[in-house]
Design goal:
Layout lengths: L11 H4 L2 H6 L3 H17 L7 H25 L1 H4 L17 H23 L1 H22 L6 H10 L1 H10 L4 H24 L1 H7 L4 H5 L1 H18 L11 H23 L3 H28 L4
Amino acid sequence: MTDIAQDQTVPSHLTAQPSDYAALLKPRVMSLSIFTALVGMVVAQGPVPNWGLAILSTIAIALGAGASAALNMWWDSDIDGLMSRTSKRPIPAGKVPAAEAFGLGIVLSALSVWLLALSGGYLAAGLLAITIGFYVVVYSMFLKRRTPQNIVIGGAAGALPPVVGYAAVTGSAPLEAWLLFGLIFLWTPPHFWALSLLKKADYEAAGVPMMPNVKGDAVTREEIWRYSIILVVCAPFIALVPLAGWLYAATSIVLGVEFLRQAWNLRQKADTKSAGRLFGFSILYLFALFLALLIEHWVGIHG
């Protein structure tokens, strides 16, 4: 277990900069989650009753995402220092004490849920609380260091933001919202397993049982290929409900073909370049699908 007081000797009030506390919130990593939540709000059935409240809801969801990141960094501070990808994060770098990161995460968690309850309703606030708790407790504390399926199950936390956004506007979470959840949930394994192939040595050093470290690279590449097929086949079906239209369908099909091509290349080649290409393209893929949904609803061509 991470020792909250392990680095209390660090005079954070003298060494920490505002940018260090901002880095605890993983703004670049969490930006995609915030974007999907915003899209969930836009595509929700029915008009937004108050744009001021909608903006407050977006801020609340962003604060919740930042809170999750800060608490994740607090808990993982011991292994972050062992991995080159994370060794320069504020806690292992000695810029911010773990206790301060923990306190920031708790305060932002409470603030985000309270603010969303006021602006988006109790259902949205409850879903946000579940998202934070699932990411920190279920994924970070229980799954990440115990099973190579950590990212498959833990992916539920990253898939919930559009449902939270949908509920913030409508006060409900119908099937359409959960279809967006399913899209991200299926996308998560091939995305993160491609990263794990790139950072296998890091995870080995930290003792994190990611798929390549436990099952080997060949099995990981095969699993990426299988999940990619499921993702690419399922993604266009969202266009069969009023949630999406022809622009989304075309985007999901065209980019899906490229996703499969890259996943196949990775399956055939044991090189890091193929893994890096798929990892980068997977981010573009998910962003483009949600952007297509956003454009359709802004222009009124969905369904």
